[in-house]
Amino acid sequence: MFGASFRCKTFGQAIKTSLLSVKSYSTAAGGEDSETVAGQSVVTERRGAVVSVAINRPEVRNAVNQETARRLLEELEAFDRDPELNVAVLHGKGGNFCAGYDLKELANHTASLKLEQDVTKGPGPMGPSRLQLSKPLIAAVSGFAVAGGLELALLADLRVVEESAVMGVFCRRFGVPLIDGGTVRLPRLIGLSRALDLILTGRPIGAQEALAYGLANRVVPDGQALQAALQLAEQISCFPQQCLRADRSSAVFSCYDAPSFTQAMQYEMDHGIPVVQSEAVSGAARFTTGTGRGGKFS
C-alpha cells in the first residue's frame, strides 16, 4: 500500500484486528505512553486496529501552532503507513475540537511562518490538511470546530458531532483565508450555495443544522462524541478492508478527480476487480453458510 501523500494513490491489504488491546502509538515519542509525556501538543492512543489522535492544547481551545501542525502530520502519516491500523479518530482534548490556527503565533511570528505554496510538495498550515489518506478518518467534534479547525474536520471521512458543538468560518472576521482545503471540501460535502453561506458570512452552524446539511454524519449528546466515534471506527475496522478501501477510493476519485463519468466508472472497475478474488469469493462462501443472512452485521 502506498503511504499518505499529497496526491491520489491506490489502496492496500486488509488487517483484521479488534479494539481489545490498548497501547500508545506515537512515532515522535518513540513508543512511550503518550499520556505521560509532558508538553505533548498531540497525543495518541492505539486500540487494536484503531488509533485516536488528539490535539492537546486545551488552554487555547486546541488552536494549532506550527509544532502542533507538524505533529498532526506525523501521526496521520504514521497511521496511513501502519499495516496494522484500519481507522483513525481525530479529536480535541478538554472539550473543544479545534479553534483553528493560533492567531497569536501568526501575529507574533509571521517571519518564521513558512508556507509551501505548491500543494503537491508539502503540508498546509494546519498540518495534514493536504493529505489524501488511504484509510478512513473520523472526526469526533466537540465544542468549537471553527476556521482551520473546521478544515481539519472536513479532512475526515465522517464527523460525529456533539449537540452543543459549533462550526463555522470564524476566520472571516480577521481576514484569514481558508487555505487548508475549506473552499475545496466544503462545497463538495454540502453544495456550493450552502458552503458560500458559511464562507461569506462566517456565521456559526450548530449540530442539528450541520446534520441537515450533511456536514455532520451523527449527532450525539455532549461528552459522547469520542466514544461514539471510536465505536463507529471499530465497526468500520471489522469489515474486509481491501474491499472497503477500494470502494472508498472510487468514491473519492469520482468526487474530486474524475474528469468524466466514464473514467470514474473505469476507475471503479479497475479497483474493484482485484477484490473479487482477494475478498469477495471468500465472503460469498461465508454467506452460503448463513453468515449475514437477513441483513445482519454481527
Summarize the structure.
This protein is of the alpha/beta class. The chain has helices spanning 66-81, 103-108, 148-155, 182-190, 192-201, 207-213, 225-237, 241-256, 261-288; strands at 22-23, 42-47, 50-55, 87-92, 137-141, 144-146, 158-162, 166-168, 205-206, 218-220.
Properties at a glance:
298 residues, alpha/beta, 2-enoyl-CoA Hydratase, Chain A, domain 1, 2 domains, 14% strand, Enoyl-CoA_hyd/isom_CS, ClpP/crotonase-like_dom_sf, catalytic activity, Enoyl-CoA_hydra/iso
What does this protein structure show overall?
By secondary structure, this protein is α/β, with parallel strands linked by helices. It has two domains: 22-237, 2-enoyl-CoA Hydratase, Chain A, domain 1, CATH 3.90.226; 241-288. Helix content is 38%, strand content 14%. It contains nine helices and ten strands. Strands 1-2-3-4-5-7-10 form a seven-stranded mixed sheet, with helices on both faces. Helix 3 packs across helix 4 and helix 8 runs antiparallel to helix 9 (261-288). The protein is globular, with a radius of gyration of 19 Å. Residues 6-37 have low confidence and may be disordered. GO terms for molecular function: catalytic activity. This is Enoyl CoA hydratase domain containing 3.
